[in-house]
Structures are given as C-alpha cells and as structure tokens.
Amino acid sequence: MFLGVNSVSEKLSCYVQIVDDFWPGLDMLCPFCQNPLISSNKSNKSLVVALSICQHRMHLTCLNSILNNQPYSNQWMYIQCPICMKVYGEKRGNQPPGAMKWTYLNRSLPGYGSTRTIQITYEISSGIQGEEHPHPGRPYYALGFPRICYLPDTEKGRRVLSLLSKAFERRLVFTVRLSITTGNEDVVAWNGIIHKTDFDTRMHHGFLDECIEQLSAHGVV
After folding, report:
1. What is the reported pTM?
2. What percent of the chain has pLDDT over 90?
C-alpha cells in the first residue's frame, strides 16, 4: 500500500508534501529509520516528504512501510507523526467488539455540588485475536468487565462523553496488549485515556482537560 495508489491512501496524499529544498541541520535524521534524510551516496537517494501541518520530515519509503503495516490499510489509513504525534486522517485501533452505554445518576461526584453524574459502562467479552492484534488466533482476555466510570454532568463532562463515544466507535478506548499492572499477555487494557473508576475519590485538578488532551493525541477532537 503506497500513498496515492488507491482511494484509501489517496485521502492521505493531501497531508504529505515532497521536499525539494533542504537546509542542513534541520531534521537531519528520518524519525523512522534514523538514517540521514539526505544521503551522500547518490545511488541511495530517497524522496523526503514533510507532513503538511507540523512540517516534520521523513523518508517517503519509511512512511509507506508504516502505512502498509497498519491493520486496516485496505479500509482506512492514518498518519501519526512520530515526532509530535499529530494525527492526519482518522486513526483506528484494535479494541475488541463491545458496547459503551451511559446513564445519569442523581448523585454528585466529590467537588461537584448538586451536579448530576454521568455513569459510563463498558462491556467487552473475551474472544479470539484477529489480524489487527499482537497474536492472531490466540485468545484475548477481557478481565474486570463490565468497567464502570464516571463524569460530572457539566458542559465539559458532556464534551468528554461525546469524545469518548467517538473514540470507542473508532476502537481506541481499549487495546489488546501486555498488561502493565499484572504482566499478563493478551489482555484487554486501557489505551492511554484516563477514566475515573472510583466514585468517591475526588478528581484531580485538570482531570477533564487531561482526558481531552489524551483523546486529541489519538486524533479524536
């Protein structure tokens, strides 16, 4: 799969620009292969491209290799800059099938006065890993489900809920990997987006902003 060769990759072509000029000392190494962007060996020339917004540079061959290894490259693709983590296109994850539901409680989280609470329930069952997972054909284990989380029913809390719903639809809230807490392989684990799982513990200052920032890092805005 290479940029611009079909309708899926063509959508990403607008985010990539071929670099004709080059300033010594600027982005000298490709962030993927760590080799010089401009080789002194004339027989080893590789096109250099820049991403349209962040302007970070890399070898086109390295970028194509990364895209070719994405699990859904025949359906949708995205570019995530390896330097600043800016997402171009729509990022999709490997979260197993499941459901996200929410309801409203007439109870207030600590520090939120008389504000209602949004209760989110995630439901995922154990199953068999697909091609997008670390070990296709092996079981994955959904331990500790259903998982229940909480948000304040405020303007910002509702914004986080909307973003989490979008992230869940894109299979980004959970992933299948080695568990950091237990050391077990092939478990369904959180995917770098913080959640409040204890009702009675007060959220730290900036919790909702941190959640929004982590969602943005996955391209969910």
Report:
1. 0.81
2. 60
Domains in the chain, CATH or no CATH each: 7-88 (3.30.40.10), 98-218 (3.30.390.130)
pLDDT interval class at 20 (50, 70, 90):
confident
Phi-psi region of 85 (alpha: psi -120 to 50; beta: other; left: phi over 0): left
